[in-house]
Amino acid sequence: MNMRLNPIVKKDVKVQSRSMRICWGVFAYEGILALVFFLTMLSIQESNRYSVANIYSQMVWLYPILAVTQMVILGVVVPIRTASSISGEKERQTFDIMMTTSMTPFAIVWGKVMTAVIQSMLFVAASMPVMALPFVIGGMPWSALFWFLAITLLLSFFAASIGILCSSFCRKTVSAVIFSYGFYFLFFVGTVLPFILVSLLSMNTGYSSTYTFSGAVSYSWWENILLFLLLNPAVYLTEFFMRIMTGESIVNTISYGRLSGATQIGGPIRLVATGNRWMIVSTILLLAVSFLFLLLAARRINPMIRRRVKTHGRKKVSDRTA
Amino acid sequence: MLRIDHLCKNYGNFRAVSDLSLHIPQGDLFGFVGPNGAGKTTTIRMVCGLMPPDGGSISINGADALAHQKELKRQIGYVPDFFGVYDNLKVREYMDFYGSMYRMSSAEIARISEDLLELVNLADKKEVFVDTLSRGMKQRLCVARALIHNPALLVLDEPNSGLDPRARVEMKELLLNLQSMGKTIVISSHILSELSEMCNSIGIMDQGRLVASGHIDEVMASVFGGSQLIVSFDEGRETAVRIAREQAKATVDSVGEHELRLSHTMTKREVAAFIGTLIANEVVVTGFNRQEGNLETLFMRVIGNREEGEHEHASESHR
Q1: In a domain, A320, yes or no
Q2: B248 φ, ψ (degrees, to nearest 5)
Q3: Where in chain B is the domain with CATH 3.30.70.100?
Q4: pLDDT tens, B142-157?
Q5: Which fold, B2-219?
Q6: What CATH architecture applies to the domain B227-291?
Q7: What is the per-residue DSSP string for B266-298?
Q8: Chain B interface mutation, best of A17, A21, A90, A100, highest count of B Cβ atoms under 10 Å
Q9: A55-71: per-residue pLDDT in tens?
Q10: With contacts defined as CB-CB under 8 Å, which chain B residues touch A94?
Q11: Segment holding A190, helix H or strand E
């Protein structure tokens, strides 16, 4: 089998590895993790000052704390990295040359995203000595480390796809970065908003939408609004850590335990929130949305696709001159 | 080689390219000239697949370039007016990067890069970082990059802008070298004197229209109504006049004691053949001078005539 590395990945990784920026990036990343590590250790030590409990067993909490810290840093870094990728090529005026080569727009977009994902995995790999402590001392199962890497990969890919989409829409890197943060923020807040609104409404009106079938069980359908949370990276991450650390589900907690209680809720949410299905469905959805963004970005950068632009209040068929 | 038929492009209400038809044969070095905003770059971008036309067709070697974009990209090498660089990338890696974008194998890229860097006089700069090269070197590297996949057509958009005189001469020599290798080259430039030294055919664009195109001598002849040739000789006056009158594309304007003045529409080769015939018939030719309008005067004549025509048309319409 002839495996070919995407030329953009090969070139970008090479160029980045020669830059001091990546070294300073890893240094800052490790620095933040070290700081969080020491603060957590200090906190564990303080809480056990007058206790005879085994301090080592509490070191498992280093795992979610360090993992979430890494996710937050990557959530900040990855959109910047990809938001500057296409717009950066346009600013360097290398974009046109790239578009005259045999590479398809999707291959170009894919190469840019993969570079960002590889960079984020480099950061994560560099954090392994610190990250391994809860596994070596705290007794966390090693499979949790594997799952952490898988989740990091997925969320980096998701953040990168948002960045590349915004980059394909903007000519300037600065506007692409701002746009991608806004879009990223929309996924965190926008997907929670319907749930908050319905919760506030139900607090005022009671479970007005709850009705009883001819059977004995009372069903509430409004909680299907929770399905929006399938696309929320923060909820995804919380669900993952809650499953690993406590075996509980965030979705069940949000719905006041009624997914498994006697007073049940109906509709698709009940199917999705059973067992590990939430994680599986959420993973599939986040991947699907990421690929959709990549396809949109590829379409956007394809110079031969006509698009409608509004000029002087009228719609005209035109195209960008990149 | 490259055939463009009724190509059109609008930006909103502005017609950037209007009904442009053009044929560039294999091996030609075609100069695209025109004032700013004439539509040269828009045409070049459409030919290179960087912009969809609103109408018309483009074919390369008989294949519809718009319908077969993948094939088009393999046939064209594009050199833009600005050389964008990647920091921290060496010349060899730069070539390797673009070669791999055409799905070429590493061995193939290494072999072709070696030859191309030799051709553009950058063989000793292989391990040098691209951003440290001079502008002239960067532009030559850009030409080498555009040739990595051995395209049939090389398109250069203002390649000499910002280059110093020496770099311009090097670029000119490089392009002539490529033409002698059988490459078809389309070059857009504002430096008309250089184009006249390089190109064997030209296209003059103005306001989105191709106002004149063809072999450079033919265009000159059609605009100026022919060129003048002055032949100086010592002996064989009668023979010289007889041979000159036998030429189908020449008329004798005046005959002096040691000088013959002709108006002609002959190509350079035909002029050379004519002089050869005189010498073969024992006319002692001591010198000859081919006087013709240069590209600048041709350009000004074409654009000027057009502007005058439009002005008159506007005045008539107004009346």
Answers
A1: no
A2: -70, -35
A3: 227-291
A4: 989 999 998 989 999 8
A5: Rossmann fold (3.40.50)
A6: 2-Layer Sandwich (3.30)
A7: --HHHHHHHHHHHHHTT--EEEEEEE---HHHH
A8: A100
A9: 777 778 888 898 899 99
A10: 84-86
A11: helix A173-190
